[in-house]
């Protein structure tokens, strides 16, 4: 499972939890403007917006999981198994392999409005990056500083949804999540009032009872509700430190601890558990990508503007996974 979110204080933030039972060799990767991005079915992007994000770099190609470009436009791919449907290349459409969608959109669009226009012509193909890396079934949260949308391609074709809550999880489709959210619209961050039995002396016996009913399990539909509640009620100072810290708290409300989502065993009998491999928070206005890993909850960051953004080579930063504990005596 995965969860992605946006958050606004003085600046704008975009990030995600990446939940999986194993890790590829992902790295924080900056793609500068002149790094040629070949496309399987359409023209290569030779000059494009620079971008920063988490990617598995294979054969010098950035396979982005999530990224933000120099204008602030941001995207995250989230698992959508059983629903994502990729086609053969089709005449008259913009045929893109699913792994090309993030660099293709972020390379060319400054805003969601511009992305909507390009997305309208897209046909995601079932093209594999390589035999070892077949297409992943995904849907995408796309956001700029002003709005969020979700892009899905199912058997019924492509759909672009307005996303007024600015959060996203996994299955099922986005319209289900928004309908399901309505079940919880009575939940509140305030203390509840007794509307059940007027005149009967009932007082809340615990703080937090206004949110009674908000689910706490790790299913995709439940995480959508939980992270929407947390994000929409979130308050923080607007300094960079307070904003980034609050963003990680929002993602923390739906993080996955090892052992709580068990998937069976591998062929050697080892227990497989899904857990939050990393959490990210990118300042969309300043191109600074902050992250934590499961092992190291201290925040690390890479600033895209410290790289040569006019260059033609990827800048790749290994994740800082060593736990850091501040000893005080
Ligand atoms: C699995 C990741 C999404 C996290 C998630 O939603 N997990 C939930 C799993 S489940 O629903 O509970 O089964 C997705 C997000 C981005 C994906 C990666 C990116 O799309 C980049 C490449 C694309 C290649 O085609 C496959 C490998 C890959 C490196 C992908 C592997 C994997 O599918 C990733 C890492």
Automatic annotation (TrEMBL):
Pathway: Lipid metabolism; bile acid biosynthesis
UniProt entry tagged with the keyword Hydrolase: yes
EC number, UniProt record: 3.5.1.24
Keywords assigned by UniProt, alphabetized: Hydrolase, Lipid metabolism
Gene3D superfamilies noted in UniProt: Penicillin V Acylase, Chain A
Keyword Hydrolase attached: yes
Pfam families: CBAH
Record NCBIfam families: bile_salt_hydro
Family statement drawn from the similarity comment of this UniProt entry: Belongs to the peptidase C59 family.
Name the record gives this protein: choloylglycine hydrolase
Organism classification: Bacteria, Bacillati, Bacillota, Clostridia, Peptostreptococcales
């Amino acid at each position: 499972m995965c969860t992605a979110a946006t958050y606004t204080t003085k600046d704008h933030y975009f990030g995600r939890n990446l939940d999986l039972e194993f890790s590829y060799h992902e790295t924080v990767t900056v793609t500068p403007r002149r790094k040629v991005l070949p496309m399987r079915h359409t023209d290569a992007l030779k000059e494009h917006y620079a971008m920063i994000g988490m990617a598995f770099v294979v054969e010098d190609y950035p396979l982005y999981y999530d990224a933000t470009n120099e204008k602030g436009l941001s995207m995250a791919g989230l698992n959508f198994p059983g629903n994502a449907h990729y086609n053969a290349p089709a005449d008259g459409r913009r045929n893109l392999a699913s792994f090309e969608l993030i660099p293709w959109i972020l390379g060319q669009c400054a805003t969601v409005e511009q992305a909507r226009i390009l997305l309208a012509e897209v046909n995601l193909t079932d093209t594999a990056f390589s035999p070892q890396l077949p297409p992943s079934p995904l849907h995408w949260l796309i956001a700029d500083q002003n709005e969020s949308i979700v892009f899905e391609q199912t058997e019924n074709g492509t759909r672009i949804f307005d996303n007024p809550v600015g959060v996203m999880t996994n299955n099922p489709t986005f319209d289900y999540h928004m309908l399901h959210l309505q079940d919880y619209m009575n939940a509140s961050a305030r203390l509840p009032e007794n509307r059940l039995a007027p005149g009967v002396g009932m007082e809340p016996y615990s703080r937090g009872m206004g949110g009674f009913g908000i689910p706490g399990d790790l299913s995709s539909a439940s995480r959508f509700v939980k992270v929407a509640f947390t994000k929409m009620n979130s308050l923080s100072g607007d300094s960079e430190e307070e904003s980034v810290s609050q963003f990680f708290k929002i993602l923390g409300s739906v993080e996955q601890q090892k052992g709580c989502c068990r998937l069976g065993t591998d062929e050697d009998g080892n227990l497989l558990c899904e857990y939050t491999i990393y959490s990210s928070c990118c300042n969309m206005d300043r191109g600074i990508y902050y992250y934590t890993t499961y092992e190291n909850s201290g925040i690390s960051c890479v600033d895209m503007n410290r790289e040569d953004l006019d260059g033609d080579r990827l800048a790749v930063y290994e994740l800082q996974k060593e736990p850091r504990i501040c000893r005080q005596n």
